[in-house]
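User: Structure tokens for both sequences below?

Assistant:
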Amino acid sequence: MKKIVLLLVLFTSTFSLAQENYKYAIVPKKFSFFSEENEYNTSSMTKAFFEKEGFVVYYDTDEFPSELANNRCMAFYVNVLKKSNMFITKINFELKDCANKIIYTSIQGSSKEKEYQKSYNESFRIALGAMKGQLNFANTSKTIVSEVNEKTVVTPVAIDSNNNETKQKLTAVPMQNGYKLVDSVPAVIYELLATSIENVYTAKKGTITGTFLKKNTGWYFEYYQNDQLVSEKVEVKF
């Protein structure tokens, strides 16, 4: 019973962050692993991407408008992690809120190009491209859990949704606090966030939020639709 309650609390608190309404995006003029500003045009490439996604974008060195200067929480902040070696360039984007909490992590962009200009441009393009259309920071819900009654536990009957079963096998790409499930494009189909319960994740598929969990017959994405619990089987390789 306590596990169910904990899962509900984790589910609500985690996705309330992703549902904040951000107007601005702040991009570093110089990423931490570079020696020069906008090296290999990576900052300008990143700024242009978030502008196309509908955000008002400033470099971290710019003077902010008074609206943003007085409320830094109207923006999310772009960070890039580099995990390269001598053979391959690997980067991930992290988007953080004003409290420095991660609200989104991209899939890994990588390149085997030997020339730095080409390798960084390719890896940045892959990671940015995978985020296209995925930044659904619309303020659709602001549910706050202040108290949970452990005596009240609803046990719904799940509906097997074979029509909605994922036809292709997805690949799990690790991120700091869970996984991205991507197809062969690669495009992000599911976002999973780890819980304290083994093989149970809070999950998001487009605008649908639910739970991703392992059963005897495989992995399932479960969510509510018209007050009924829907269970979709998902083929995924971890």
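Moving on to the next sequence.
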Amino acid sequence: MRKPFADVTARTQVTRLRALARRALPSWGLDDAAVRLLHHGYNTTFRVDAADGRRFALRVNVIPTKTEAHLTAEVAWLAALSTETGLLVPTPQPTRDGAWSARVDSPDHGRALPVVLFSWLDGRNLGRSPRPRQLRATGEAMALLHEHAATWRPPTDGALPLFDDVLTDLPNRFADHPMLDAGARAVLTEAHARAQELQVRAFAAGGVIPLHADLHGGNLKWHRGRLSVFDFDDAGLGVPALDLAISIYYLRDDAVGEDALRQGYAAVRPLPEVDDEVFEGMVAGRNLLLVDDLLEQQNADLRAIIPAYTAASVRRLRAWLETGRYRRDLPG
């Protein structure tokens, strides 16, 4: 009997998804291309090497909340960025039928999963310790994205989700999830209520635009002194300060790096005007979103880190509630 997807090892999960990816390749006329894993996380991405030497990145979307309208808006924005700006981003590749994605039935998920093919980006991921020069370039890229987003509109059949809720479109799992003890539930529930209050204040000021909403070292590449930006899968509508807060969540407590990011942004457009208290709430909100999403992940590797990640998050969020400053470098 075939084991449920959530109960098998990461290696088995990837094997199953690779077979699914191979079934999608004929949609682009790439039947004989080689497929190898790039990343198995919230979604799974493979490198595709065609027989003629061309390379692509193929993403299998396993997240059930990804709507058709969201996917349409994401690829439309990337197509526009590819032709209307100097930013290096992956260009979506239409299928032989002119569609932006293929659909492949997955018995593991009980539905057809969307598969998208993108142009290849050279370089290495910035990772967890990007240099100040690279972070300044990241700030510049974020500002350029915001400049484009201020006037870009999705097609009529596309729509991006609104991120006025700290947990975006995810259900709030903090009150009764079986993997949380009473102490964790209390801290996460209080932190969520406070972060939501502050996010409402941020959005009340207006100025909502499309955001990448996941600009960190894992979604950025560096090649010959140039930055490229990829993984727009989490794109949505929000205030510009939210994009900045999300990136700074991953840099907190790297004061030099955080300053470099801000300087890069300010070199292109003025930094978003936002109260410090509200901004710290959005930084903390990123942590809340990641915990909430992690609690229901099927990915075997992600499920394995739930206890340690949740414990660290509770310490950080408790300290934020007590001090008003979100930090990552806490003992324990």
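User: Anything stand out in the second?

Assistant: Strands lie at 34-40, 44-49, 55-60, 102-106, 111-119, 124-125, 209-211, 220-223, 226-229, 236-238.
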